[in-house]
């Protein structure tokens, strides 16, 4: 019986098709260099003796293999660099442990009767200044009127109570400030939080500093660092 010869291109094409259709697991999501080399060896083994593999085609295949291996090496190098950068960033955050830092923020922490302060700065004179307190679910629980203010920096400490004067449970709250000027125009207010750093962590490539009252601030947003409480 005479066996029909199957062309190299057909073998390679079918192998590549089968490989792509195979459900891959783990981190392998594309044709890696080992599989590529196996396909190349298969081509050489199954080539037609009467029509051997063309040198130019072989050179092109080897060039593709070399390029694939180079890309894999580059990816590994980049991953190593990123890991080193993340490690260095975390180490840089550790340097802030037990220091007192200041950063933008409007979070308020209520723990065992202790409530954290918030610093706020008004850019121009206001005739009405107020702060809305929100719980962790986004519900407004109180509004405190602060009166008129001249431009400058101030400190606010909430009493931990709701609209009706009831004590609210411990947890984290948000303090959102608002103000209007003499002509009813909105007045810009910026807020800051401060505290002692007791923890360092990494989230989504950002270094987070945890304050002793449970609040968190971004390392990249720190504006002041002190050895003791201001």
Features:
230 residues, alpha+beta, Immunoglobulin-like, seven-stranded antiparallel beta sheet, five-stranded antiparallel beta sheet, 3 helices, elongated
How many domains comprise the coordinates? 2
Strand content: 25-35%
Percentage of residues assigned to helices:
25-40%
Summed over residues and divided by their number, the pLDDT gives a mean of 78
Oligomer: single chain
**Uncertain stretches:** 1-16, 18-29
CATH topology of the largest domain: Immunoglobulin-like
Number of helices: 3
The CATH architecture name of the largest domain reads Sandwich
- Describe the largest sheet: 7 strands, antiparallel
Class inferred from helices and paired strands:
alpha+beta
Provide the CATH top-level class of the largest domain: Mainly Beta
Succession of helices and strands: HHHEEEEEEEEEEEE
Could you tell me the number of beta strands?
A: 12
Sum up the overall morphology in one term: elongated
Rg, please?
A: 32 Å
Distance between the first and last residues' Cα: 95 Å
Task: Briefly say what this structure is.
The chain has three helices and twelve strands. By secondary structure, the protein is an alpha+beta fold. The strands form two sheets. Strands 1, 4, 7, 9, 10, 11 and 12 form a seven-stranded antiparallel sheet that branches. It has a five-stranded antiparallel sheet with strand order 3-2-8-5-6, with no helix packed on it.
């Amino acid at each position: 019986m005479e066996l029909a010869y199957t062309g190299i291109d057909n073998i390679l094409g079918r192998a590549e098709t089968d490989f792509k259709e195979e459900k891959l697991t783990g981190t392998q999501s594309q044709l890696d260099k080992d599989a590529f080399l196996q396909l190349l060896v298969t081509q050489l083994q199954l080539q037609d003796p009467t029509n051997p593999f063309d040198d130019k085609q072989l050179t092109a295949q080897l060039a593709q293999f070399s390029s694939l291996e180079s890309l894999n090496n580059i990816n590994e190098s980049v991953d190593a660099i990123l890991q080193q950068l993340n490690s260095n960033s975390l180490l840089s955050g550790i340097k802030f442990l037990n220091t007192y830092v200041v950063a933008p923020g409007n979070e308020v922490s209520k723990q065992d009767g202790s409530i954290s302060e918030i610093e706020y700065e008004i850019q121009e004179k206001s005739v009405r200044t107020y702060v809305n307190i929100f719980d962790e679910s986004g519900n407004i629980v109180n509004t405190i009127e602060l009166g008129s203010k001249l431009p400058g920096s101030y400190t606010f400490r909430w009493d931990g109570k709701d609209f009706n004067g009831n004590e609210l449970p411990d947890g984290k709250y948000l303090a959102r400030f608002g103000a209007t000027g003499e002509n009813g125009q909105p007045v810009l207010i910026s807020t800051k939080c401060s505290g002692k750093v007791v923890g360092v962590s990494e989230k989504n490539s950002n270094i987070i500093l945890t304050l002793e009252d449970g609040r968190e601030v971004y390392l990249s947003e720190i504006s002041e660092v002190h050895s003791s409480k201001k």
